[in-house]
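new request in #modeling-help
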Amino acid sequence: MSASSIGATDQLATPPVGPAPIVAEIGRGRWGDLWRAISRNRKALAGALLLLVFVVLAVFPGQIAPDDPAAQIFTPALAPSWHHHLLGTTASGQDILSQVVWGTRLSLVIALAAGALATALAVIVGVSAAYLGGIADGILSVITDVILVIPIFPLVIVIAAYRKNAGLFMLVIVLGALGWSYGARQLRSQTLSLRTRDFLESARVRGERKLYIILFEILPTMTSLIVASFLGAALYAVLTEAGLQFIGLGDPNSQSWGTMLYWAQNNEALFAGMPLWAIAPGVCIALLGAAFALLNYAFDEISSPALRVRKLDRRRVPKRLPAPARPEPMPVPADGPVLKVEGLRVAYATDAGPVIAVDDVDLEVARGEFLAIVGESGCGKSTLLYAIARLLGSPLPGEIIGGRVLFQGKDLVLLEERELRRVRWRDLSVVMQSAMNALNPVLTVADQMRDACRAHSNMSKKEIEERSREVLRLVSIDPVHLHSYPHQLSGGMRQRAMIAMALLFTPDLVIMDEPTSALDVVAQRSLMVQIKELQERLGFAVIFVTHDMSLVSHFSDRLLVMYAGQVAEMSRTRELFDRPRHPYSQGLLEAFPSIRGPKVRLLGIPGSPPDLAHPPAGCRFAPRCGHVQPRCTAAEVPLHSVNGSLVRCVLVENEA
Amino acid sequence: MSEPLLRTEGLTRHFRVGKLLSRKTLHAVDDVDLTIGSGEIVALVGESGSGKSTIARLLALVYRPTRGEIWFEGRPLSRLRGRRSRLAYSAAVPMVFQDPYSSINPAYRVSHGIVRGMKLHRDLSRTERGAELNRVLDAVGLVPVSETRRRFPYELSGGQRQRIGFAQALALRPKLIVADEPVSMLDVSIRVGVLNLMGELREHEGVSFLYITHDVASARYLADRIVVMYAGHLVEEGPTEDVLQRPKHPYTQLLVSAVRDPRAELGMADARDVGEPPKVVDPKPGCRFRQRCPLAIARCETETPVLRDLRDGRRVACHVAD
């Protein structure tokens, strides 16, 4: 059967790059990606280069070392010279450089072998503990914790002393068998967080066996963590081996850096004019350790991008286009706007260069107005909100690169953090999307209200208590819940408590970011009704961001439809629902199945929103638009003013 | 009456909650009789915590029923013995998950899950698998196929990933796909595309669907029959259009009235309900909706209403509704 017989198809669009991922990117354990990440990371490159040098030394010591390391010249302790013995000789006349070169092999072999053994154990114990759960997890975790608190070095000393000259093999076994616990704990917690992921549930439902799931579904998503754990264990092995040899518990006849240190120490090399005898192997141990540590750190960064700081390269930000004849923002009622945003632009730094998430947005909010901002994920609506409230940074790492946000006669963009604190919450407050995340789980509602009051006012304890009760009553929560913890409240009550907190100081403007999206339909509606009533009673203005246009259809005064970082259409709400002018608004309205009226086949909007790192030329909606014309892609489409609405579409040009 | 494709009888699932000394029993699903016919799309509607996802996982063999039985093509699942027969059932009744961002393994190309399913459940050669992979990707509208199969999950949008979920199910030659809120995490503009896809798969491949959702309007758009759950109980069922235009159970009425219709005026008067579905822990007899119910009578306090038959294939679990 062909796709065309099936109607709507979903053409593969270019992948959205979008803002930097906020959560740790588990998975992506694809070698190509890993390689790209490594080659971009300076720490990784430096570490890899160092390690490569040592690997070459370890593999070809015979070709590199100038002398036989054991050959003795019967003129002891020669000083370094350019002609022969670059680093001098030992007390018994052996070439130090050759000894260092030959010593690399043993250090590296022990590091790699012990690292591999420790990592294998860490993976087996950590992943099976987490995946099997229950008693198995209990037992394995106890073992891990016990091993974790055993001081390994003293233990190794005891073992080494007991089985003196037991050889390398024993050392590797001991280092490996004791060095896995830290990695096991990390892998366990990572696996635990994966356990609830649907792709594992999907594999179970498919009928996969447990072993398959562990080996082929879980492990491949943790490559960078496993590599990091290997590098950590290897680093530890290098140091422990050197330490053991140095205190003479290794094999004094073996060829290693630690052994060199041991003999140098016995001959008091530092005082006998042969300082390089001790310094050379010491530096090598430090460098090999540094190589592992750098790589380890780099892999940590790769497995959790939150550790990485990207800087916005302003030179690469595309210039703002000269807007031909910008139409005046829609007229607002007489007593002036409470908020005026002019030409606001926000950029994110990404690996692919700057991405303009909010591009030249103008808007005004009148006193007591309810303005809704609607758009799909990635259209920049949340970024716009965060920019207005000056909350960019974390979790949204964007940067305002142009424009003004005028509130109470001040440009918020220019305010210092200290001045902002006087405005935020008192006059402009924010209600976040997920109340469960926005409320502190270990503090009661009363505690959190008290903290907010103390931070933004000098109310007395009694006043705070009274005000807290008052705002809870406002949102119809019984004040007995004042001393409840967030988890003791239902989802709807938590969200209302968030709104109550935002109203502590009767602000002029409340900014709401999808406050109802975690609620069920029935609870959603009662919350919306409540917000509207409060707004009419207390007279604050609302900016309400949502992805669901139908949610605000009966509540907002005006509606701003955003698409790909720009205003696509701004209109009075009723007008927009009755006469949507932008093809995107039309498409959004036609995407809702209705509960009443005749059943009609809906089509939705084909394709997906553009990649903002490479926005399409001209109108950004053109690739998905059914009315596209040559001039749509020829030049940037400005906003046109039509009957009091603003529309970014060439179709309305003649109406304007 | 001929045997339906799938039928549950008194399906019940309880979970133990709490610490050792304060053991309690959470009744996620209680006494659910559900039937799904061949080629039928049944919508299972309810708020979060109503037990609809638990039913999905019972049907997918993730949980075992505490009580009750699931009959598939006339055979009881409790008699499934051995891996082979369980696998055969899993292939016939696959599941599509809610979150397209977490339901595909990020470490593999998107073809991984599809191919694994075929390896486990179907005896195909390598070339046959390749051809079948192309067929299912084409059937879910992910064209060009040769391009899609090379992609990694993060290179696809949410809607495209959800289509991969359906392709995985389709590669097993399913008879019934359990779709657990498959569009709720997608953007509005692409939801309809996925709903249409389910309708088309029913039409062209003859697959039945259990469409689990909290969105009543999308249930109306897609389903032949609707089943409404509240707090672990099935409270009303019947042909979609009948139930939604003339809901009998007061909960269904509340649910339908809360559906937003941008084209209509808002009835502010009936928006007073601030209740939420209860967590059903160690319940006493009685209707679980009674605290929120405008029609509640004394009998609702003491006696749990059971589903009774009304006319035209409708059933309702309410002492008052007629």
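bot summary: Chain B touches chain A through 89 residues (CB under 8 Å).
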